[in-house]
């Protein structure tokens, strides 16, 4: 699955090309596998139900290749940070954990709770990942993690028929996004389904707009609180957010949005009684479309990238899950090397509901055009990719519904008071960072 995209050579030439591709990706081949019969591993991650089943298929391939036995423990009920806090307190860390946040990786590495992978793993990471993903998996300039699964959040999903009735096409800039929304609403179908019952969807709105209006450098500064939330760039983003999410363009108005959860916002856009034309969220919207509606992806439901700002360079906000070793062993190290390979990514990618940041995963593995488009958009962003800003914050500010970013942005949807919201965001951020600095040196802060 590595380095052999779009071959059109003769049969002999293609065979040589494939062979060279397999040699280039030798760590994923069976001849280079470390045999681990009798070894046992525990892996902790957040996945449950269908996602867990598909990750178990990934682990099953590793077991078949190596002879190791891997047990997966789901942290879906309590979250990975809380489960690790409990397990570490009991002196029972898992062999490998998949973390949902770069900040959690840095915290664990700072406390000496992570095992640095071998040079073989580092070489596989360098072979298959762009610099931005290598940095996200590193601490103190050393690789600690492998980003196995990613999420592309910079997407707008739309009702194809609604666009056709309004005579509009997907916009390429923010001004065009406003024009399209107005045209859709003018047909009698509100432009946006907004799920403001859950504040995390509004943080995604803010992050996409901030990255495009303020740029990657200031995004980094805000993410680490090197500039205040009262900075003019924050206020500009809030004004743009208010302009795009005009109450009359939101299905049910502000009150309706505040009573709508994420899955319902997708059903409102693609269900049998459609009450909105667009919904802004990540690639996992596709799973809701296929499981809760009869809309056909690529026919009734389609997607376009969240429009960029003035910069021509593509930008993407996203998330993901990074594998780290917490108990040193040859088996854990070999699992890390496997997870960094395109072979491991292909197992889940072929089943759907998955995006990989692995550069050498052949896009033809994805089961449909939309999955391929979402994955390509993520990869094309390169260094224009930025991790979800709320996940880079102290959890008390970025990860809880009743405080910080989520609360203030939910209230902003109603108040639309730019200066007051910026001040309240800064006050909440300052308090969260101060609390983190004074927290005990041991133990993990629970996150969402």
Describe the structure.
There is one protein chain. With 448 residues, this protein is of the alpha/beta class. The chain has helices at 11-24, 49-66, 80-89, 102-110, 119-128, 131-136, 160-166, 174-186, 199-214, 216-223, 232-244, 253-258, 262-270, 285-292, 330-339, 342-349, 369-381, 395-398, 404-415, 418-438, and strands at 40-45, 69-74, 96-99, 138-139, 142-143, 145-152, 155-159, 278-280, 301-305, 316-325, 385-387. Strands 1, 2, 3, 6, 10 and 11 form a six-stranded mixed sheet that branches. The chain has a three-stranded antiparallel sheet with strand order 8-7-9. Strand 1 (40-45), helix 2 and strand 2 (69-74) form a beta-alpha-beta unit.
Quick synopsis:
This protein is of the alpha/beta class. It is built from 20 helices and eleven strands.
Assembly level: single chain
The number of helical segments is 20
Please outline the major beta sheet: 6 strands, mixed
Q: Average pLDDT, to the nearest integer?
A: 90
Strand content: 5-15%
The outline comes out as globular
Number of strands: 11
What helical percentage do the residues reach? 40-55%
Category by helix and strand content: alpha/beta
Low-confidence stretches: 1-28, 440-448
Tell me the radius of gyration. 22 Å
Q: Note the gap between the termini.
A: 34 Å
């Amino acid at each position: 699955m590595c380095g052999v995209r779009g071959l059109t050579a003769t049969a002999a030439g293609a065979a040589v090309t494939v062979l060279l591709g397999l040699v280039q990706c030798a760590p994923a081949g069976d001849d280079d596998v470390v045999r681990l019969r009798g070894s046992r591993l525990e892996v902790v991650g957040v996945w449950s139900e269908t996602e867990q089943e598909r990750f178990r298929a990934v682990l099953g391939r590793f077991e078949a290749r190596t002879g190791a036995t891997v047990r997966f423990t789901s942290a879906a009920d309590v979250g990975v940070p809380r489960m690790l806090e409990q397990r570490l307190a009991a002196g029972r860390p898992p062999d490998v954990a998949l973390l949902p946040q770069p900040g959690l990786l840095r915290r664990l590495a700072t406390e000496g709770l992570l095992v640095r992978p071998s040079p073989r793993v580092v070489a596989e990471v360098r072979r298959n990942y762009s610099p931005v993903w290598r940095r996200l998996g590193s601490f103190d300039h050393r690789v600690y993690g492998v980003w196995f699964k990613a999420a592309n959040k910079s997407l707008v999903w739309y009702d194809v028929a609604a666009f056709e009735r309004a005579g509009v096409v997907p916009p390429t800039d923010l001004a065009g996004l406003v024009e399209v929304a107005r045209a859709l609403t003018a047909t009698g179908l509100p432009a946006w389904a907004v799920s403001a019952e859950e504040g995390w969807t509004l943080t995604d709105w803010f992050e996409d707009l901030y990255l495009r209006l303020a740029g990657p450098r200031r995004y980094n500064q805000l993410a680490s609180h090197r500039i205040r939330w009262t900075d003019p760039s924050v206020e500009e983003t809030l004004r743009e957010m208010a302009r795009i999410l005009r109450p009359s363009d939101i299905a049910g108005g502000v009150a309706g949005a505040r009573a709508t959860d994420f899955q319902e916002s997708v059903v409102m856009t693609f269900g049998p009684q459609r009450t909105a034309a667009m919904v802004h969220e990540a690639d996992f919207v596709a799973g809701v479309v296929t499981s809760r509606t009869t809309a056909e992806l690529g026919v009734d439901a389609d997607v376009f990238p969240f429009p960029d700002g003035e910069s021509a360079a593509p930008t993407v906000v996203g998330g993901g899950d990074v594998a780290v070793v917490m108990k040193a062993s040859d088996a854990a190290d070999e699992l890390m090397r496997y997870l960094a390979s395109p072979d491991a990514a292909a197992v889940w990618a072929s089943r759907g509901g998955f995006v990989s940041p692995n550069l050498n995963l052949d896009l033809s593995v994805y089961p449909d055009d939309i999955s391929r488009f979402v994955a390509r958009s993520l990869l094309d962003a390169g260094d224009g990719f930025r991790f979800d800003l709320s996940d880079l914050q102290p959890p008390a500010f970025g990860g809880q519904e009743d405080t910080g970013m989520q609360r203030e942005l939910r209230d902003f949807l109603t108040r639309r008071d730019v200066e007051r919201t910026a001040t309240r965001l800064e006050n909440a951020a300052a308090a969260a960072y101060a609390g983190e600095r004074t927290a005990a040196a041991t133990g993990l802060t629970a996150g969402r």
